[in-house]
Amino acid sequence: MFPLLRETFIRKLRILDRVESIEAPTFTAMVAGYLEDDEYRALQLFLAGDPEAGDVMPGTGGFRKLRWADRRRGKGKRGGLRVIYYHLSADAQIWLMTLYDKDEMADLSAAEKRALKAALEAELARRAARRRLRRK
């Protein structure tokens, strides 16, 4: 029907399939309470297609906060969910850390932001050390 559009769509799906979503235990425990399976898949595809969509959160080392509609509660992006994630472009990964309803919490505390940053730095250092060992 529209061969050019069809080709573009397929190429885009291949690119999206190469991005790996990794869930932190906190995210895994909470996601079912907020998103149906199809909504969660839509979130993953959205982030894979635009991993820098969320706003960078100061003091976190690069974690992002994405506003996402909460259809279960009839809320749009502005009053809906907040998804905290990190995009590790070098490994084509999206690390999904946590999510929450805006009504539950306006923002992460300074201590929570420091904890995210510390966890990120530790993981990146671990991966860098592992890469150095592989090169030897």
CATH class categorisation: Alpha Beta
CATH topology: YaeB-like fold
Q: Assign an overall shape.
A: globular
> In terms of quaternary structure, what is this?
single chain
Give the structural class: alpha+beta
Please report the distance between the alpha carbons of the first and last residues.
Answer: 53 Å
Superfamily at the CATH H level?
RelE-like
Please describe what this structure looks like.
By secondary structure, the protein is α+β, with helices and mostly antiparallel strands. It has one domain: YaeB-like fold. It is 47% helix and 21% strand. It contains 4 helices and 5 strands, in the order H-E-H-H-E-E-E-E-H. It has helices spanning 3-17, 25-34, 37-49, 110-135; strands at 20-23, 55-56, 64-68, 81-88, 93-101. The protein has a 5-stranded mixed beta sheet with strand order 1-5-4-3-2. Strand 4 (81-88) and strand 5 form a beta hairpin. The longest helix is centred in the C-terminal third of the chain and has 26 residues, at 110-135. Mean pLDDT is 83; it is low at 1-15.
Write the layout of secondary structure elements.
Layout lengths: L2 H15 L2 E4 L1 H10 L2 H13 L5 E2 L7 E5 L12 E8 L4 E9 L8 H26 L1
Parallel strand pairs: 1-5
Antiparallel strand pairs: 2-3, 3-4, 4-5
Features:
4 helices; five-stranded mixed β-sheet; 5 strands; 136 residues; alpha+beta
